[in-house]
Amino acid sequence: MGQPTPALNDDWWRSAVIYQVYVRSFADGDGDGTGDLAGVRARLPYLAELGVDALWFNPWYLSPMKDGGYDVADYRTIDPAFGTLAEAEKLIAEARELDIRTIVDIVPNHVSDQHPWFRAALAGGPERELFHFRPGRGEHGELPPNDWRSEFGGPAWTRLPDGDWYLHLFAPEQPDLNWAHPAVRQEHEDVLRFWFERGVAGVRIDSAALLVKDPRLPDFVEDRDPHPYVDRDELHDVYRGWRAVADEYGGVFVGEVWLPDTERFARYLRPDELHTAFNFSFMTCPWDAARLRTSIEDTLAEHAPIGAPATWVLCNHDVTRTVTRYGRADTGFDFATKAFGTPTDLTLGTRRARAAALLSLALPGAVYVYQGEELGLPEADIPLDRIEDPMHARSGGTDPGRDGCRVPLPWTADAPHAGFGGEPWLPQPAGWASYAADRQARDPGSMLALYREAIRLRPVLGDGPLTWLPAADGVLAFTRADGGTLCVVNLADTPATLPAHTAPLLASGPLDPEGRLPKDTAVWLRA
Ligand code: NOJ
Description:
Elements: E1 17-21, H1 37-42, H2 44-50, E2 54-57, E3 61-62, E4 74-78, H3 85-97, E5 101-106, H4 116-122, E6 133-134, E7 157-159, E8 165-167, H5 182-197, E9 202-205, H6 235-249, E10 252-255, H7 262-267, E11 276-277, H8 280-283, H9 289-303, E12 311-313, H10 322-325, H11 346-362, E13 366-370, H12 390-394, H13 437-441, H14 447-457, E14 466-468, E15 475-480, E16 485-490, E17 504-507, E18 521-526
Parallel strand pairs: 1-2, 1-13, 2-5, 5-9, 9-10, 10-11, 12-13
Antiparallel strand pairs: 3-4, 6-8, 7-8, 14-15, 15-16, 16-18, 17-18
Helix pairs in contact: 5-6, 11-14
């Protein structure tokens, strides 16, 4: 354990490209079919070549994996399926040698039911105070204490043999912590220190707007303000405490804050709270020029007064992969409308995803790339008997769940399991090898080549604010900084005439013979 490496550039997070590593599915170093830290360490050269500034690791802690590691049994131990703490320390240091920073994922809303606190609570200890235990309603306490629903479906309460109920906003194996208890706050500040001391540069905060509950635990009433558990004012005090810890180490936060109200969202980004938060309005936005422009404008407008940088996200481990989403009739994302068997045109979706990559990488702020996005992986159909995501079972089998975007990566076209390692924990669909990184690395027209080139060229766009340029309906055109470089994206049905320019710097697809930008194509130009 060493002192954190002093930051070379304290502001790196304002414009970084951050690559999300879902460890379980990234690369399998020991051949057991589960991705691990050895696999990540072996692939660091790939990540350096891609040009990313930081890696965000989904939870890598000891976990029974009832929700892909978001059920943490010990925040200070690496799950043995992934490796050891010593290996994590090596990985952090080796990445840093390559100028790549590490972001860990902290899950403060809940723990695993195997966490020592919850086990002690079940045994009747004072640890019950650290959770939300209540007697039930009804004559014999047979009804849950209130009507809250789990985010994964079903009631948010589970009854214990002793008659009491406990609250879980997610799966029953993820009991919610009681953030009104000082020990819960203290423990999380200690956990932050633990990881900052190991050299991590940042922390992603899971379910960041859900921690604090109305102590009365009232029934849910549509549109009641404040909400009994979403975005409560008391949360901001929690994050001010966290910020003070992060500032000691120069660490940064990115919050998972899903809030439709932009003013409420921006409160989390005040100068003494979180540095950044994921941009879910952009991530869920349909492939439509006017909608995208509004999303971009609203994002920039809500961030400007507080001086926080925007983030740009096209997908992550919870949502439908981009090339699939953009190839469907409904190109937006909504958990509520996920269904089996949605017709998809992957050629169309891939063309749009390529254009979206150039769009998001040209916008001012930080960009997140989810593993496999750079390979253009589609959402996979997982055989029903292999789906592990609790969202599927708890929906009664109607929701396909999130495993379709979590399939182990294809690295080598000609190797067994496409070079992932051992027999993958989730099956790779037929044809997966055609997306292999080694094959794409040799193909200048591949998605991987586009991402590498865009990330390499990105600094030439400048770091100035965005200025929209006049453009036809359905076309997005803007410049950054000195106006020397332009980004044009055509979402209209007809080819777009480009503004005066020298040779294109990079395009997501060929221009037409007249030098116009075809539908669903983006280009970076020198004016
Ligand atoms: C958000 C995470 O991204 C998701 O994967 C997880 O299931 C929930 N939070 C609960 O931790």
